[in-house]
Amino acid sequence: MIDSDVFDFVERCRKHKATEPLLDDLLETVRNLGFEHLILSGVPLGGQKLAPMVELNGWPEGWLERYIEAEHAAVDGVCIYSAKTLKPFLWAEVPAKWSDTQASRRVAGEATEFGIWSGFAVPMLSVHHWQSVLSFASSQKAISLSPRQQVQLVTMAVYAGMSIQAFSDVDGEADGVLTDREKEVLLWAAAGKTSSETSQILGLTERTVKWHTTRAREAFGVGTTTQAVIEAVRRRLIHP
Fold it and tell me: Potential cystine with 134: which of 4, 16, 157, 215 (Cβ 3.0-4.6 Å)?
């Protein structure tokens, strides 16, 4: 791949108005580097479910369904490491403490049934999730990339991620995630107020405050109020 291919993709990103054309374009472009599949999603944390966090699914048919059903994200070394670094990495570079567990090896073994053997991951900050990752997958048993090729992949991944975010912003999805009252209770939680204190401030019952807090957690698919606050801040829904 030459640099002009990357710049041409970046230019086309500005013209795409939906996820499917963007996915097809990116897949076609990265085939020149030996990748046939990819996925862009948020990185699940603290019991979050992967399914609602997937933004581009270019995995082989059936693999995402199996991955979600088996809850592989919780044990997959690539997924775990994607939450711990912002440095792009070859899948083979995942530290052994996460990649060499029995569960992680099982995930990698199942992936080969779908023609996935190796890959390259680009973790990214996201306003929609704690962190996102665009993971490119190859049928080659050991994909080899030069430093320049890695930069090319990172550049395309970042622009693809920006385009997806822009689609969401245009659709106004972020604004509808939380109600005004849910934002309010999270804002006071961010300020360190308990449910009891928040109820007094807002003139609500403590039970009502807890109900709104629970709804906010469910909206983000997280297990704690602290995680809900973090998600709301990251998505710029509240400003503590």
Answer: 157
Here the tokens at position 20 are: 């499917």
Start-to-end Cα distance in the chain: 45
| Whole-prediction pTM | 0.74
Q: Give me the DSSP letters along 100-113.
A: SSHHHHHHHHHHHT
Q: Give the number of other Cβ atoms within 10 Å of residue 178's Cβ.
A: 23
Question: CB of 74 within 8 A of CB of 44?
Answer: yes
Tens of pLDDT, residue by residue over 59-84, are 999 999 999 999 999 999 999 999 99
Token reading at 73? 């994200």
Using CA atoms, how far apart are residues 61 and 200, in angstroms rounded to an integer? 52
Which pair of structure tokens corresponds to residue 235?
């998505």
Starting at the earlier edge strand, list the strands of the sheet with 132-138: 54-58, 37-42, 132-138, 118-124, 89-90
